[in-house]
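Input structure tokens:
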């Protein structure tokens, strides 16, 4: 720890990086009854903290190494940091980025002078290509997180935080991808002020550090979720795991809805649109506040970046209402008779509806998909459910149902009475040319009975598909899809499908 603290204190970052503000989030602090501060790394020249570690590593290269050039692999922000550092230092930079990288990050790297190579569907495949180029061309590899100089550069954020807020701090929340930022912050904070809790935050579907610490060793995840691309790392670094496993107080996991809600919180207080990974720490802070009603001292979250594609905002906005629990999604069974809708709406009273979908299915019962806006999620949701049950309505809460949130609420149609042996699969595939065709080729032997795809402006497409598959072929069908390397879930028993789509 002492060696790393020395490296942090002697790190050279301010030739390209800014000493960023530590701003109080007035609205969120009032709402949570807490002193919430946001470290504004979104204000860096590349709108990300990654420039710190990249420059601190590259500035130490000797003349011969600089002449040879550098190569890196990144899903975006580290790539921008390397490109900016290379331009400052007069070094040629080759940057390998996954094909699925958001376009805003690719264009920025090119604008900064980096030679972009698009390769692979994920970070790991990009790393393999970068290492091939390193060996073939004699380039110097700049690792995005598992390097002591990179960790030290990121750790300069902690020096600024402790200078900017010398008063009581209860906890600092740090997003975790490969672990470079978390390792640097934890080392410096625990050396100077060990009473401060340093808490890592990861997405539930990219929990590489949480899994490693729980297992007692680095563990490669089979896959990671695509939403927070900036932290979508299957395996943390050797150095970063060693530091974080000893110094982090805990790792909190949050979901897509919580990150989307945190993006909205940051926008409301700062008018800045954070990327999902940038808002990750704040989502963890809010989860901590909900869990710990009695707190002392400031709570600090690091906004690590604001490189978000504009066309992702629609998806973020939709999920934010669920993340802040201000929308309840319900499937309600009502009598199929004249006046039943009017009676149903009378029960809901003056509550605001965000969604209302229905299609006739039989003469006795109607299944209505309804979204209700609520101010107090727990109390008001309980009141809604109690009112509906008291009036004899059958109700299924779909607020946490991914199939309902991602697909069913946007679909039209109804039950397919003539379709039998239907297998329902929910899947994700990389948004690149030919990916959807590969998906369809894999299921070619079976008849497609339902298909819903909606572009979310993200790097992965999301599909809900129905196939006519005899029960004895279920295993073969799933093996075909598994061979593509795409995520899929069997949703045949999903309540939303049973109520609204099944024949």
């Amino acid at each position: 720890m002492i060696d790393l603290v020395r490296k942090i204190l002697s790190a050279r970052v301010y030739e390209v990086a800014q000493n960023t503000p530590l701003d109080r989030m007035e609205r969120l602090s009032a709402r949570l009854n807490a002193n919430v501060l946001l470290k504004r790394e979104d204000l860096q020249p590349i709108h990300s903290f990654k420039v710190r570690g990249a420059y601190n590593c590259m500035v130490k290269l000797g003349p011969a190494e600089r002449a040879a050039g550098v190569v890196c692999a990144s899903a975006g922000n580290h790539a921008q940091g390397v490109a900016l550092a290379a331009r400052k230092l007069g070094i040629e930079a080759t940057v390998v980025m996954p094909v699925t990288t958001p376009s805003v990050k690719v264009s920025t790297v090119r604008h900064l002078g980096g030679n972009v190579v698009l390769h692979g569907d994920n970070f790991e495949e990009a790393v393999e290509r970068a290492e091939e180029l390193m060996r073939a061309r004699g380039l110097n590899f700049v690792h995005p997180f598992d390097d002591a100089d990179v960790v030290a550069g990121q750790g300069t954020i902690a020096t600024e935080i402790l200078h900017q807020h010398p008063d009581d701090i209860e906890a600092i929340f740090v997003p975790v991808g490969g672990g470079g930022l978390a390792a640097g912050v934890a080392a410096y904070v625990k050396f100077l002020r060990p009473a401060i809790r340093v808490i890592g935050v990861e997405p539930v579907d990219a929990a590489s550090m949480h899994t490693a610490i729980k297992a007692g060793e680095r563990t490669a995840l089979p896959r990671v979720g695509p939403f927070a691309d900036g932290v979508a790392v299957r395996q943390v670094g050797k150095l970063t795991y060693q530091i974080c496993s000893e110094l982090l107080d805990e790792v909190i996991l949050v979901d897509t809805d919580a990150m989307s809600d945190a993006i909205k919180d940051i926008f409301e207080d700062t008018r800045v649109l954070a990327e999902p990974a940038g808002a990750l720490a704040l989502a963890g802070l809010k989860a901590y506040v909900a869990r710990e009603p009695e707190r002392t001292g400031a709570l600090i979250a690091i906004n690590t970046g604001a490189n978000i594609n504009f066309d992702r905002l629609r998806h973020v906005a939709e999920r934010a209402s669920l993340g802040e629990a201000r929308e309840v999604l319900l499937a309600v069974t009502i009598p199929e008779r004249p006046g039943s809708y009017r009676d149903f709406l009378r029960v809901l009273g003056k509550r605001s509806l965000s969604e209302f979908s229905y299609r006739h299915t039989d003469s006795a019962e109607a299944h209505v998909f309804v979204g209700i806006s609520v101010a107090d999620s727990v109390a008001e949701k309980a009141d809604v459910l109690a009112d509906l049950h008291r009036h004899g309505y059958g109700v299924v809460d779909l607020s946490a149902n991914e199939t309902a949130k991602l697909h069913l609420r946007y679909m039209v149609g109804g039950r397919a009475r003539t379709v039998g042996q239907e297998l329902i699969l929910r899947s994700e595939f990389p948004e690149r040319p030919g990916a959807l065709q590969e998906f369809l080729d894999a299921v070619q032997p079976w008849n497609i009975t339902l298909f819903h795809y909606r572009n979310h402006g993200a790097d992965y497409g999301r599909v809900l598909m129905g196939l006519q598959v005899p029960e004895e072929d279920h295993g073969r069908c799933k093996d075909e899809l598994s061979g593509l390397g795409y995520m899929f879930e069997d949703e045949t028993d999903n309540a939303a499908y049973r109520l609204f789509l099944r024949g």
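The radius of gyration is 25 Å. The chain has four domains: 2-48+148-321, 50-141, 325-400, 418-500.
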